[in-house]
TrEMBL record:
Signal sequence region: none
Superkingdom per UniProt: Bacteria
Species name: Nocardioides iriomotensis
InterPro entries: Rossmann-like_a/b/a_fold, Universal_stress_UspA, UspA
Protein's recorded name: Universal stress protein
Membrane-traversing stretches: none
Pfam families: Usp
Domain UspA: 10-148, 160-200, 211-275
The family this protein is said to belong to: Belongs to the universal stress protein A family.
């Protein structure tokens, strides 16, 4: 399968691990609700000696081994997707390449949404080892959902069962708002616009057009003086999904400046969507 066939589908990065099964279930459910195909994507990794330490024959044999192993994982993922919802069209994409490269290419090829699992390791370990979910969410050109098994929510929480979108007035906020409204409308849920601020002033009104485009979505606005990272992580315990924008900071810049989207991906207790400004 070529990446051109990924366009318009719900793409899921699948590696056969339990976290991948959580992401697969989320992707299939969303695809069923939105009437889109789902594309199960597996990146087999780079052959040993890719940097030039192995001869050509050894590299070829290793690449073939990776392809065979990847085919088994991909077949299992596709079978699982069909078990979850037989009405959803399932496509597949297998490449022997570094996962972040493959997933970024899938996003650039026009995927409607990219869904990933997460191992949930902490900030420093994630920075040193490299997280596929974080790295891809920073560079992908389509919205990225990092799915994890949600915790038991508090039904009395302000955020319970809502789509929550974090805003700060930047252009990334409008991208996040657009995706959050679409999700809330599709799921038949209320939307909470959450502005957690320190000393950067108040958030104002919704940009024009959202209320008219999504008259079916009940909207509330909540402002709180606190670190947005902590507030959004807390909201993720109880919300259906938390959406934020991303400026696409690199690893070093994000570590120094404290990217809200990166922090949320690492520490959230439920699904997170990261949206990017620019054409959809």
């Amino acid at each position: 399968m070529t990446t051109t066939e990924v366009a318009g589908t719900v793409a899921i990065g699948y590696d056969g691990r339990p976290q991948g099964d959580v992401a697969l279930a989320w992707a299939v459910r969303y695809a069923g609700r939105s009437g889109r195909p789902v594309t199960v994507v597996h990146a087999g990794g780079l052959p040993v000696g890719y940097a030039g330490t192995a001869d050509g024959a050894a590299l070829t044999a290793n690449r073939q081994d990776l392809h065979v192993a990847g085919r088994r994982v991909l077949d299992a993922g596709c079978a699982r997707a069909r078990e979850l919802d037989a009405t959803v069209e399932v496509r597949e994409h297998l490449v022997v390449e570094e996962p972040r490269v493959v997933l970024a290419d899938v996003a650039a090829a026009g995927a409607h949404l990219l869904v990933l699992g997460t191992r949930g390791h902490g900030r420093l370990v994630s920075y040193l080892l490299g997280s596929v979910s974080e790295g891809t969410s920073a560079v992908a050109t389509c919205p990225v959902v990092v799915a994890r098994e949600p915790e038991v929510p508090d039904r009395h929480s302000l955020y319970f069962d809502k789509v929550v979108v974090g805003v700060d007035g930047a252009d990334t906020s409008e991208a996040a708002l657009s995706e959050a409204f679409e999700m809330a409308s599709l799921e038949g849920r209320s939307l909470m616009v959450l502005h957690a601020r320190d000393d950067r002033g108040r958030w104002h009104d919704l940009p024009p057009g959202f209320a008219e485009k999504y008259p079916d979505v009940p909207v509330s606005v909540h402002e709180i003086e606190a670190d947005p990272r902590w507030v959004l992580v807390d909201a993720s315990r109880h919300a259906h999904l938390v959406a934020v924008g991303s400026r696409g900071l690199g690893d070093t810049e994000a570590l120094v400046r404290g990217s809200v989207s990166r922090y949320l991906i690492e520490h959230a207790h439920g699904p997170v969507m990261v949206a990017h400004p620019g054409p959809r």
